[in-house]
Design a protein that fits this description.
Elements (H helix, E strand, L loop, with lengths): L2 H21 L13 E3 L1 H4 L12 E4 L2 E4 L4 H4 L14 H6 L17 H16 L5 E5 L3 E3 L1 H4 L13 E4 L2 E4 L4 H4 L13 H6 L16 H17 L2 E5 L11
Parallel strand pairs: 1-4, 5-8
Antiparallel strand pairs: 2-3, 3-4, 6-7, 7-8
GO molecular function: metal ion binding; steroid binding
Organism: Chlamydomonas euryale
Subcellular location: Endoplasmic reticulum
């Protein structure tokens, strides 16, 4: 047996296999699609480009579009920044950047050519500007304090963690380590205005009564509200017990 020939053949075979392996470029992992999901109009206002941690979003008839890749148009100080963080269906239909035309999806009173302009502008946003759908606008849920109390973390799968500041309800699910039952601020399920103003961790201070607070304490409250508006979705508002519109979330 010609061992030299056998070894030479094996060497050639290994070289071929190695070259083939090098030619095969690994397929890049599919990028995870960015998705915001449900967003109230109140929360949408904070997706306007001033917070670099948030994308720039616009809404057209309740559908959310990511305009982040067109910061040259929708970013702060730019031509269409008036649209950022707002519902813009009516403004698009009118071809307007007037603040009074922004913030409304009402187009039923507009003529046919305005409807056609809206469809053309939307096609441009999706086609030329590559603005993808990332969610939808949902209305705020009306809740009583009794209903809010269910969202204290005892049944998180059924009642997501929430708290209220001066009647505005926030979804604090991603802050459960801080605001859940075992957190340093165990305020889930409560109205927390006074506690935040006092920088208190006592649940007994979780009320909306601001009487007697100093200017510094009121500033504390304002700072907390700014933090929550930036970090947590606004999902509801508190209504008095017995209000007909109040529904369990």
């Amino acid at each position: 047996m010609d061992w030299y020939g056998v070894l030479l053949g094996l060497g050639v075979l290994l070289l071929v296999l190695l070259l083939n392996a090098l030619r095969r470029k690994p397929q890049p992992a599919a990028a995870e699609k960015f998705w915001v999901g449900d967003l109230s109009m109140e929360s949408l206002a904070y997706y306007c480009g001033y917070d670099f941690m948030k994308p720039i979003l616009v809404s057209v008839r309740g559908v959310l579009y990511d305009a982040s890749n067109r910061g040259d148009l929708y970013g702060p100080g730019k031509e269409l920044h008036v649209y950022a963080g707002k519902e813009i269906a009516r403004a698009l239909a009118l071809g307007s950047t007037k603040p009074g035309d922004v913030g409304s999806s009402e187009i039923d009173d507009l003529p046919a050519h305005a409807h056609a302009r809206l469809e053309a502008r939307l096609a441009e946003m999706v086609g030329l500007m590559k603005m993808e759908v990332v969610g939808q606008v949902v209305p705020l849920k009306e809740m009583t304090l009794e209903e809010l109390a269910r969202h204290d973390g005892s049944l998180p799968a059924e009642f997501p963690l929430r708290l209220a500041i001066q009647g505005i309800v926030y979804d604090i699910t991603k802050g459960s380590d801080f605001y859940g039952p075992d957190g340093c601020y165990p305020f889930a399920g409560r109205e927390c205005a006074r506690a935040f103003a006092l920088l208190s961790t006592e649940t007994s201070d979780c009320v909306d009564d601001l009487e007697g607070l100093s200017p510094m304490e009121l500033q504390n409250l304002s700072d907390w509200k700014g933090k929550f508006n930036s970090k947590y979705p606004i999902v509801g508002r508190i209504v008095p017990s017995g209000t007909q519109k109040a529904k369990a979330a």
